[in-house]
Amino acid sequence: CVVCILANYSRSGEVKTTITMGVVGYPNVGKSSLINSLKRSRACGVGATPGVTRCLQAVQLDQHIQLLDCPGVVMETGDPPAAAPLRGALAPQRLRDPLSPAAAILRRCPPQQVGGG
């Protein structure tokens, strides 16, 4: 159990200390959902599009464990701007030009997967 493992880290000999653990990752991979699952309640907002978590948020799991939920992190790769939506950096509704990312997806997919036949 993950909570048990975290609880073990909060022990220092006979003294219980408080630990803070950050949950970091790409946009829309389930960071907030993981925290909600561990907390067994809806402590963090979740959604199908990137950008629901807009700032760092602390969630107290128990008296010794605090989890930090952060917005998705996307590292700059030097890829063309059309690749940003493919990494989850932009919500589809915010795209000015949806054709460039769609064309990038089509270039990466084998034709038989896209053609329907």
Automatic annotation (TrEMBL):
Keyword terms of this UniProt record: GTP-binding, Nucleotide-binding
Keyword presence, GTP-binding: yes
UniProt KW GTP-binding keyword: yes
Superkingdom to which the source organism belongs: Eukaryota
Residue stretches making up the G domain: 21-75
Matching SUPFAM superfamilies: P-loop containing nucleoside triphosphate hydrolases
A GO cellular component entry from the record: nucleolus
Any GO molecular function: GTP binding
Record InterPro entries: GTP-bd, P-loop_NTPase, TRAFAC_YlqF/YawG_RiboMat
Name of the featured protein: NSN1 protein
Gene that encodes the chain: Nsn1
